[in-house]
Design a protein that fits this description.
Elements: H1 5-38, E1 41-49, E2 53-55, H2 76-82, E3 85-89, H3 90-97, E4 109-112, E5 124-127, H4 131-140, E6 145-150, H5 152-160, E7 166-172, E8 180-181, E9 192-199, E10 205-211
Parallel strand pairs: 1-6, 1-7, 3-4, 3-6, 4-5
Antiparallel strand pairs: 2-8, 7-10, 9-10
Length: about 220
């Protein structure tokens, strides 16, 4: 080989290797980005009594009123600003209608029901999708973080599928004795990762857990 050709060959080889590295890096970045965006976050943000109920047996939440309107929102405003969509069960939706003003204005909401319902609020969609289908819908609509408001049946269905990525539970210093549990029964054991806690003067303690790394 001509000695003058060797630097050209070496340069060509170097450029080829650089191009391969750049292509691999771009592919890796795209893959990681896809993985990050593939599964939207579903956050179960809820208040519960000390004995694990989110409402009385008839769906009542009047026991929470003693802890409201004292100049403390328990981080609600910051949390609400962080979410892109709202997921509710039928009974939770009907409970929200009794509040007067629709509490989730400006956020796309899905109400889960297997029966027909009249929906009058803007940005509210009635759905009978299963949790996996709903998460796919969120991904398709580029909504990366959803608030699972409740109730316990809906939360249980998402948990059984391993689709709740974060749990924020405000434990209220009240014992109800009976009621609607935090989760419907069923599903396998799930180990969670502790992410923080905050105690408030009212006696409420807010616990935050993330889905376990092996989930």
């Amino acid at each position: 080989m001509d000695c003058c050709a060797r630097p050209k060959v070496a340069e060509t080889g170097r450029r080829h290797l650089v191009a391969q590295a750049q292509a691999l890096g771009a592919q890796l970045t795209e893959t990681l980005g896809t993985k990050r965006a593939a599964v939207p976050e579903v956050v179960y943000y809820v208040a519960a009594s000390l004995d694990g109920y989110i409402a009385t047996s008839n769906g009542g939440i009047e026991w929470l009123s003693a802890f409201e309107g004292k100049g403390e929102d328990y981080g609600y405003a910051a949390f609400y600003a962080s979410i892109d969509a709202v997921l509710l069960g039928r009974r939770t939706y009907e409970q929200c209608l009794t509040f007067g003003e629709w509490p989730y204005r400006g956020k796309p909401c899905w109400v889960f029901s297997h029966g027909r319902m009249k929906i009058a609020e803007p940005d509210v969609t009635l759905t009978n999708q299963d949790p996996q289908q709903m998460v796919s819908e969120l991904h398709k609509r580029r909504l990366p973080r959803a608030w699972l408001v409740g109730g316990g049946e809906l939360a249980g269905s998402f948990r059984r599928e391993g689709l709740i990525s974060e749990y924020i539970v405000s434990v209220v210093p009240v014992i109800l004795g009976a009621g609607i549990p935090l989760f419907a029964s069923g599903g396998s054991r799930e180990a969670l990762k502790f992410a923080g806690t905050k105690a408030y003067p009212s006696g409420i303690v807010q616990l935050r857990y993330l889905r376990g790394v092996d989930a």
